[in-house]
Structures are given as structure tokens and as C-alpha cells.
Amino acid sequence: MNGAVKTPAASPRRGRWSVTAGIGAVLWLAGLAIPVLPDQTWVFIASLFAVYAVVALSQDIVLGRAGMFDMGHAVYFGVGAYVTAILNLQFGWPIFATWPLAVLAATLLGALLAAPIVRLRGDYLLVATIGFNAIFVLVLNNNVGGVTGGGDGLFGVGAPGLFGWQLGSQGAMFYLNWLAFAFTLWLILNLERSHLGRTLGYLKLDPLAAGTLGVNAARYRVLAFALGAALAGFAGTLFATLMSAVSPGAFFFTESVTLFAIVLVGGQGSIPGVLLGTVLMFVVPQVFRGFAEYRYFVFGIAMIVIMVLRPQGIWPRSKGASR
């Protein structure tokens, strides 16, 4: 022995994570140049991708990381969008001022709805969340309280303003959504390395073993629902501003199914997988608008093929992540 202390080699998992994070950062920075493209359609498509990436990543918290079947996630997306639209159009609130209340409303609703059902498993939880989505759309269509605009929705949502500067152009909206996308990625990456993220992973892997170690499963599952709902509500505020309108059609049960499928097809708990699924489901149909109406058909076939050939998803989460 020479008495020297050997430094442990860097783990392959940490190396893979660093490479993935580095590639992601480069791609995000490259995306900042999108507004200079001559065709402004791409600016809108990139903005839409950023919004749906945020809501898909929020679905992944509940399904991919906590292992709970949530087929009503569009509810929280819609709550954020409608709170922003109602406060802006009917009460004259600036867009940025609506953000905290929209996120808070989605978070509280997520926790409130989750509390009585988190002990349900599998199909039972799935059916319960489907019911929530159906009730939410029914409330919107019936214009409860006279504030949702009924089946027509609400139109004319204003542009956000900052220090007297209106962010109404396509380019300005893109940068706002792109920064929101970066914030969400930062949040998810930190969740992976946090106590909460690791605990959710253990609960998904073996809830019985986690319970014997003193983990309050119900509490952590409600936290997962609340956090996922908060991010979905945040995405909803971005969506309402980007589209300048909200309507019940954007939050139907099919949207919840789409978000659910994105996580399954892309790879549960995998950030690159979820983003790839978002591109396939929301960006490709925008590029090939003539085939947009067939997106559910094509995505359904793709989902069947992938589940047979690659049941863990297109880009599955690496083993041992967040452990």
C-alpha cells in the first residue's frame, strides 16, 4: 500500500445524466434563435411546443414519477387557463398578476381532488380522474357562475406587459414561453435529486416497502398531484395568453388521454422521452396540418407498436436514476 487515497470514479449514471443535461442545454440555447427565422409559423409552433412540454412534464410527475394513473390532468391545465382569462377579461387584471392565483387555484384543486382518491389503485384511480375531467368540461359548457363563456369560451385575452412594454408579438411570446420551459426543466431536474423525488420513486417501485420504512404514502401522493397540478396550471396561463382565448374544447378528455399517452410512449420519468412524445403529438401535426385530424389515429398506432416493441417507451429512464 502506498497510503494514497483513491478517488471514486464517477458513476456511469452521473456521466449519462451530465451528457443528457448538456445536450438539452445546447438545444435550448439553439432554440433562442427561432424568432429570427423568416417563417413566423415556426415561432408559433415552438411556443406551442414549450407550453405543451410544460404540461406534459407536469403529467410525468404524477404518472412517471409517482406511478399514479391520472387521466384527468387537462382539468388543472384548464383551471390555470380559465383563471387567467377570467381575471384578465372580466376584472381587468394584468396577465402577470393572474399567474399566482391561477397556479394556486390549480394546486389547491389538485390536492383537494387527490386527497380522497390517492388510496385507490390502477383502474379505480383512472376512472375517478376521468370523472373529474367530465365534470370540469360540463361546468365550463354550462357557464356556471356566468364567467366561463359557455361552449364558446372566452376571447380577447390580453398580452402580458412588463414595465410598460407589451409582449404581444410572436417573438416576445416565444421568449416568454421558452423561459417558462427552461424554468420547468430546472424544476424537474431538481425534483429528481430531491428527497421528494426519491420518495416518489420508492413509492412507485414498492409502496409496501416504503410504508414499512415510515413513508406516509397518501401524503406524498397528494403532494405529487398538487405539484403536477401547479405546473399544469402554469402551462394553462401560458396557453391562454398564447392563444388569446380559451374554450372547453381545449380541455376535453381526449387532451388528458393525449398527455397520458405522451408519458407512456416517450418513457415514464424520462425528460427526453416526454419531450420527444410532445414533439410527436403536438409539433408534427402543426407542421403537417393536412394530417392534423389524424393525429390520434397515427399516435394510437404508434403507441401500440411502441408498447409491443419497446414497453418502457421510446427513450426510457436510465436505471438507478434519482437513487
Which spans have pLDDT < 50 for at least 5 consecutive residues?
3-11
Q: Which class do the helix and strand fractions yield?
A: mainly alpha
Shape: globular
> Biggest sheet, open or closed, and with what strands and sense?
2 strands, antiparallel
Portion in strands:
under 5%
Structure description:
With 323 residues, the protein is mainly alpha-helical. The chain has a domain at 38-252. It has helices spanning 12-31, 41-65, 74-91, 95-114, 122-141, 170-192, 195-205, 207-212, 217-243, 253-266, 271-287, 295-309, and strands at 154-155, 161-162, 165-166, 245-246. The strands form 2 sheets. Strands 1-4 form a two-stranded antiparallel ribbon. Strands 2-3 form a two-stranded antiparallel sheet. Helix 2 (41-65) runs antiparallel to helix 11 (271-287), helix 3 (74-91) runs antiparallel to helix 4 (95-114) and helix 4 packs antiparallel against helix 9. The chain is globular. The model is unreliable at 3-11 (pLDDT under 50).
